[in-house]
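Workshop exercise sheet. Pairs work together: one partner reads the sequence aloud, the other fills in the structure field after running the prediction. Swap roles for the next sheet.
Pair: D.N. / O.F.
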Amino acid sequence: MLLSLAIFLPIVCGAVLLAIGRDEQAHAVRWLALVAAVASFLVTLPLITGFDTTTAAMQFVENQPWVERFNIHYHLGVDGISMWFVPLTAFITVIVVISAWEVIETRVNQYMGAFLILSGLMVGVFSSLDGMLFYVFFEATLIPMYIIIGVWGGPNRVYAAFKFFLYTLAGSLLMLIALLYLYAKAGGSFDIQTWHKLPLSGTAQTYLFFAFLAAFSVKVPMWPVHTWLPDAHVEAPTGGSVVLAAIMLKLGCYGFLRFSLPIAPDAAREWAWLIIAMSLIAVVYIGLVALVQKDMKKLVAYSSIAHMGFVTLGFFVFNELGVAGGLVQMISHGFVSGAMFLCIGVLYDRVHSREIASYGGVVNTMPTFAAFAVFFGMANCGLPATAGFVGEWMVILGTVKANFWLGGIAATALVFGAAYTLWMIKRVYFGDIANDDVRALTDINTREFVMLGLLAVATLYMGVYPKPFTDVMHVSVVELLQHVAQSKLIPG
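Structure field:
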C-alpha cells in the first residue's frame, strides 16, 4: 500500500484543493497543500528504511487486475533503479509548495493542486510494472505541466506550453505502438518484467529501440530534440522549472533503463555508438551554447541538457560505474538544478528580470542568499564534496574504462560547465553594486532560507556520503548489465 499512498495521496489532496479552494481562502489552501506535500513525503520514507539492498527483485509490490478484458494490471513495485526517485519526487514537491507561498497570489488552489497531482503521477511512472499503466502515468504528467506553464508562465507561455506538449506527445505515440507490439508478442500481457524475457529478432529489437528512443530522448531531452526545454524553462513559473528540471527530465532517462536496455539489449549494444555520440554532443555543444546565454534561466536550462548528456553517456558504456554514475547524476541533478532555478526565482521575485546584465554585486545586499547561490553554483560545476561531483566523476571513470578517448572528451567538457556557471556567478553576485535595483534588494526571509537550506543539506550530504544511494542501486545495476550482456536474439 505504500506506493499507492505515495501516488494517490497527493493526487486526491490536489483534487480536493481544486474543488474547494478559492482565492479568498488562499492562506488555508497553502497550509493544506503543505500538509499534503509533507504527508506524501513522509509516506515514502518507509521505502528507504525498509528497502532490502541485497536483492534485485521488485519490492513493495502491489498487483491487482485493472482492465481484465485486456489483461491490464495495476502493478506497482520498485527496485534499486527506481526506488530513490519516489522520495525525491515527494521531497521536491514540498520545496515547490514552500517556494510558491508568497509568490502565487491568484488561483492558488489550482497552482498547488496541479503540482500535487503532478507529483503523484510522476511517482506512478517510477513505480509502474505494467506497460499500459506506465504509459497512462507517463502521458498524464503532460497535462498538469502544460497547465502550469500555460497559466502561470511568462509572456510567451502559450507557445512554450504547446511546444512542450507537442514534442513530448509526438515521441510517445511511437512508444505506444511499441508497447502494443510487445503486448502481442507476450501473448496478451502488459507485464514489463515478462517483456524483459521475450526472445526478439534483431529487426524487432531495432524497431523497438528506436520507438523507445523517440519517446525518451525528447523527454530527457537529448540533442537534437532539446529545443523545447529552454523555451519551457524560460516561460514556466519558478516551481514549474524546478519540477521540470529536477524530476520530469528523469522520466526519459528512467525509461532507457526500464525499457530500452532490458527489452532490446542487442539493439542497445549495436546502437550504443549513436547514443554516446548524441550524449557527447550534448555535453560539449550545449555547454558552448550555455556560455553565450544572457538569460539566467536559459543558461541553467542548457546546463540541464548538458548534465543529462552525462546520464545517457553513462548508461550506454555498459559498465557498473557508468550506469550507477548516471543514476547518481539523475538524483544529484534533482537537488542542484532545482536549487539553481529557485535562486533565479528569488532574484526574479524582487527585480522582475532574469537578464544577467540586470544584476551585479548582489553579495553586498544579500550575503546569506549569495552564499547559497554560490554553493549551488559550485555544485553545478561538479565541485568535490557536493552532489554534482559524484555522478559526473563516476560516469567519466566508467567511460574511461570503456574507451579512454571518449572519457577524455567527457572530462574536458566539464571545463565548459565550470566556465558558464562561474561566469554567471561572477557577473550576478560579485563586484560592486551595479544599479539601484540591486542596492534596494533585501536578503532572503525564513521561508526562502528553509527551502534553500533543505536543498543545500541534501546536496552536501550526497556529495560527502553517497554510499546510501549507491548501495541501493548496486545489485539492480549489476543484474541489468548481466541481462543486457546476454543476447536474446532469435533469427528473423
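Discussion prompt: The beta strands are 59-67, 72-78, 200-201, 489-490. What would you look at next?
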